[in-house]
Amino acid sequence: MSKFWSDIVRELKPYVPGEQPKMQNLVKLNTNENPYGPSPKVIAALQAEAAETLRLYPDPNSDKLKEAIAQNYGLSASQVFVGNGSDEVLAHVFQALLKHSRPLLFPDITYSFYPVYCGLYEIEFETIELNAQFEINVDDFDRPNGGIILPNPNAPTGIPLALAEIEKILKFNAESVVVIDEAYVDFGTESAVKLINTYPNLLVTHTFSKGRSLAGLRVGYALGHKDLIEGLIRVKDSFNSYPIDRFAEAGAVAAMQDKAYFEETCKKVIATRTALVSDLQGLGFDILPSGANFVFAKHLKREGADLAAKLREKNVVVRHFTKPQRVSNYLRITIGTDVQSKLLIDALAEILK
Ligand SMILES: Cc1ncc(COP(=O)(O)O)c(C=O)c1O
Asked: How many CB atoms sit inside 10 A of residue 71's CB?
């Protein structure tokens, strides 16, 4: 605390990111990164970008990247917004589109950055309780609000919501913006992107950090009606004109264009997830249905905090949340390679012996 802090900074409760350990040789299953490196075409594009041209600013509008993304989804570039990770995109979304006189709605168990943005931008919010199975009941979103945001699949539960259910939320809420945060959509969840041309109140956010193996490059984007995108651009151009640097644009364009590599790595992650779920069940875990590159798992006899600590002693890092109470016995386990799954299962088998 410093007397020089503004009032708002005194009140902030910042987001706490998952640990990025400095130790080598850990089985790192705690922040939902892709276990496979980016496409070789991405590496080549980044190497080509290491050139004299770095003395110049990048394109402030990231036109090449917007074009590559638009082409991939059959949209126009005016329906695409890009930013420094989807976290930055989301920050602009909260400020540009979700701050109104009525409260913003989001699930009570969800991405814990949402209440942080509300604190930063002074946005009033209400949380909607998930049911006993940690599912979203869309009828609960049929109430007065200033906007809605939810991840699909939800995080940290991993549970996907059917597109028909999302469509109900859009229909109930024609007067507010509905943001679907599809950070994990590439691992078997149906995307709402196909609804964008039907619902002008729909905004979908995506990231290159998960399915496209580029958490280190920091690129995310939003797709929606051009008027929503224009609002985001107004905030971006009042904040940082160049959020996408030359490497980020070149790498992300190459990643978007290498569809075959992307599909193959996602398929491998999904196959590892299926095998891991069955191995964990064999060890006495209860696992929520996952449409993501992680599973949310609870041991029927042992405490989550203790299991996470014991795994850490064996150099396996998973994520454990102490709050809310309802999830404090769960471990969020990122899907790694088959070899990492085996190391995890072997470590757990020893701990549970
Ligand atoms: C639900 C959700 N949305 C958005 C993000 C942000 O991803 P990034 O800033 O890497 O694009 C994350 C990161 O883990 C997430 O879990």
From this structure: 14
Distance 3 CA to ligand 1 centre (A): 33
What's the gap in Å between 109 CA and the centre of ligand 1? 15
CA nearest neighbour of 155 among 201, 81, 205:
205
Q: Residues 138, 33: one domain?
A: no
Reported as a single tens digit per residue, the pLDDT across 204-244 is 999 999 999 999 999 999 999 999 999 999 999 999 999 99
d(CA 68, ligand 1 centre) in Å:
21
As a whole number of angstroms, the distance between CA 223 and CA 75 comes to: 9
Check whether residue 167 and residue 31 sit in a common domain: no
Q: Is 30 found in the same domain as 49?
A: no
Please report the pLDDT score of residue 67 as a whole number: 98
* Cα 149 to ligand 1 centroid, rounded to whole Å: 13
For residue 25, pLDDT over 90 is answered with no
Whole-angstrom distance, CA of residue 333 vs CA of residue 273: 10
Task: Please report whether residue 153 resides in a domain.
Answer: yes
| DSSP structure class, residue 188 | T
Amino acid at site 221: Y
How confident is the model at residue 47, as a pLDDT?
98
- 119 and 52 share a domain? yes
d(CA 48, CA 71) in angstroms, rounded, equals 23
Over 90: is that where the pLDDT of 110 sits? Answer: yes
Q: How many domains does the chain have?
A: 2
- CATH number of the structural domain spanning residue 53: 3.40.640.10
Q: Which domain holds residue 47?
A: 40-257
Instruction: List ligand 1's pocket residues with C-beta within 6 A.
Output: 32, 85-87, 111, 151, 155, 181, 183, 207, 209, 215, 220
Task: Among 207, 227, 257, give the residue marking a domain's end.
Answer: 257
Same domain? For 67 and 172 the reply is yes
- Residues 159-183 have pLDDT tens digits of 999 999 999 999 999 999 999 999 9
Pocket test for ligand 1, best of 111, 117, 319 (most atoms within 8 A of CB): 111
